[in-house]
Write a structure and sequence with these properties.
Enzyme class: transferase
Structural class: mainly alpha
Helix content: 55-70%
Protein name: RING-type E3 ubiquitin transferase
EC number: 2.3.2.27
Shape: extended
Number of helices: 32
Largest sheet: 3 strands, antiparallel
Radius of gyration: 33 Å
Distance between the termini: 91 Å
Catalytic activity: S-ubiquitinyl-[E2 ubiquitin-conjugating enzyme]-L-cysteine + [acceptor protein]-L-lysine = [E2 ubiquitin-conjugating enzyme]-L-cysteine + N(6)-ubiquitinyl-[acceptor protein]-L-lysine
InterPro entries: ARM-like, ARM-type_fold, ARM_PUB, Armadillo, RING-Ubox_PUB, Ubox_domain, Znf_RING/FYVE/PHD
């Protein structure tokens, strides 16, 4: 209740003052109240976790066998007393595993499946008289072959034919020697599911669900139970080694990473449903509300989209993006600012970048960037362009917009320190695409970027150098940069006092300016008494990239000096 009230947009609800007061009071009380759990429930939980831990394969060398009398008492205390109770509990756990497969994280699914395995095996051991008698012909052939290759007693042979269904791989119907969990929450033998995936399938064989990832998570609990069952029935369990590692090359590395994976999804499914309900409610207010209601709804969406990829996905699925794009044209400064900031936050989720572009947002975002009602709106529009341009196709579309580059250059001139940085990083992203470099030069980016190198308050020296280094690769950009009379002395100083990245971009600019007809820049460098010592210092102490370019520039200057002496001679 507390979580639901945290995200309830109370100010947008058409309720009386008395009801509002009661809700606010309830919210305060919900925050103060501590969750009470019956100590007996906590004890049962600890006992159950202890039983599960006993079966953890990591402790296989030292573990004791499970005491099923104790397990029966624990499960009976939580209401599992008949085979029907066990079946119902298993069905509920399987349903929960499928629900959590998409949102709960790998560890959650693994834990649920470990619990399923324990309940399944406990049922088979506690109600042993109800062993499943169904045995298909294919499985009989496998077990017969197994008996021929392994000299077991008659009792163990009959046990082979009575393997509990929960220990059989759904694909091969054979005993699972290395059970693993796939994204759908179902368990298979590693070799069988690896072969299935290797043949090009991307669905779960049992459920038909599309697998959202191909990681194979070891089912330690089930593996431990299989081993215990084999020991009790005097069955030798031969685990495959080389075949399992060669069947699915990438599965081993994924398995190692999944073992160490941390479940970062903190919200429960109930909380996600609450976010979905809230997002749909707010989108409705965006669509039909008064300007005041739209302002508040856009602000609430802006905050909701600020944290969590799940929130960003859910808001987009609720249909918020087209309405937010429309609100960018609002004459209300706060509506416009909230809308562009909400779109910026939503664009952090990659799928939303495509949706925002498909909604035709670029025209409106550029309008806000160029003549937004507030400076914050303009700066956030630049940040949105930076975020959207992380995708190559978006670089092309945004760069082709006739007003995008001039608007970014204008913000570079007029914005706050944060705004200048947003504009510079957006420019950098766009001019990575070669066709956009000419547009940036025509928009007047070069002289302004050089000017910003001297602006300590702006604090974007490294960003400006990075953009200039890219514009150097464009003929128009090279020509414009060579026109500057103040750039070379600035770059020499930056070779001495700049950041490591700044030094790299400075030497890149100097080398590019001196090559291919840059004799005049080379002469200016030779006439500057600080240039050669700065270059020699960079060769000795710079990064690998900076050292290589500084060495190349020194050789170039040496040739230029030799040619000058020859001409004089």
């Amino acid at each position: 209740m507390g979580r639901a009230l945290d995200i309830l947009p109370l100010s947008l609800l058409n309720i009386t003052a008395d009801i509002r007061e009661q809700v606010e009071l309830l919210h305060k009380q919900a925050k103060r109240v501590d969750l009470f759990v019956d100590p007996r429930e906590l004890q049962r939980r600890e006992e159950l976790l202890q039983v599960m831990a006993t079966n953890n394969e990591k402790n296989a060398k030292n573990k004791a066998l499970v005491d099923f009398r104790e397990v029966k008492e624990i499960l009976s205390s939580i209401g599992l007393r008949s085979p029907l109770d066990y079946d119902e509990e298993i069905s509920k756990l399987e349903a929960e595993a499928q629900k959590q497969a998409g949102t709960g994280g790998l560890i959650v699914v693994s834990n649920i499946n470990n619990l399923i395995s324990l309940v399944l095996y406990s049922k088979s051991m506690i109600f042993s008289e109800e062993h499943n008698e169904k045995t298909d012909e294919a499985f009989k052939k496998r077990s017969a072959s197994f008996r021929m290759n392994n000299d077991h007693s008659s009792s163990s042979q009959s046990a082979i034919l009575n393997i509990p269904d929960e220990f059989r791989c759904p694909i091969s119907l054979d005993l699972m020697r290395d059970p693993v969990i796939v994204a759908s929450g179902h368990t298979y033998d590693r070799n069988s599911i690896a072969q299935w995936i290797n043949t090009g399938h991307n669905t779960c064989p049992k459920s038909g669900m599309k697998l959202i990832h191909m990681a194979l998570i070891p089912n330690y609990a089930l593996k431990s139970l299989v081993h215990q069952w084999c020991r009790e029935n005097n069955i030798q369990l031969i685990e495959s080694t080389s075949s399992s590692s060669s069947d699915l090359g990438r599965s081993n590395s994924m398995r190692k990473s999944c073992e160490k994976a941390v479940d970062h999804i903190s919200a429960t499914k109930t909380a996600m449903d609450a976010v979905k309900m809230t997002a749909e409610f707010l989108v409705g207010k965006l669509a039909t509300g008064s300007p005041e209601i739209q302002r508040q709804a856009a602000y609430e969406l802006r905050l909701l989209a600020k944290t969590g990829m799940d929130n960003r996905r859910i808001i987009a699925e609720a249909g918020a993006i087209p309405f937010l794009v429309t609100l960018l044209s609002s004459h209300d400064p706060r509506i416009q600012e909230n809308a562009v900031t909400a779109l910026l936050n939503l664009s952090i989720f990659d799928n939303n970048k495509i949706l925002i572009m498909a909604a035709g947002a670029i025209d409106n975002i550029v309008d806000v960037l160029q003549s937004g009602k507030t400076m914050e709106a303009r700066e956030n529009a630049a940040a949105a362009i930076f975020s959207l341009s992380m995708i190559d196709d978006c670089k092309v579309t945004i760069g082709a917009h006739p007003r995008a580059m001039p608007a970014l250059v204008a913000l570079l001139r007029e914005g706050t320190s944060a705004g200048k940085r947003d504009a510079a990083t957006a420019l950098f992203n766009l001019v990575v695409y070669s066709a956009n470099k000419g547009s940036a030069v025509v928009a007047g980016a070069v002289p302004l970027l050089i000017e910003l190198l001297m602006d300590d308050k702006a604090g974007i020296t490294d960003d400006a150098l990075a953009v200039l280094a890219l514009l150097l690769g464009c003929p128009d950009g090279l020509e414009e940069i060579r026109k500057s009379r103040i750039l070379v002395p600035l770059l020499i100083d930056l070779l001495r006092f700049g950041s490591p990245k700044g030094k790299e971009n400075s030497i890149t600019l100097l080398l590019g300016l001196c090559k291919d007809g840059g004799e005049e820049v080379a002469r200016r460098l030779l006439l500057n008494p600080r240039s050669i010592p700065s270059l020699q210092s960079l060769v000795a102490d710079g990064s690998l990239k900076a050292r290589r370019k500084a060495d190349a520039l020194l050789r170039l200057l040496n040739r230029c000096c030799s040619q000058s002496h020859s001409t004089v001679g």
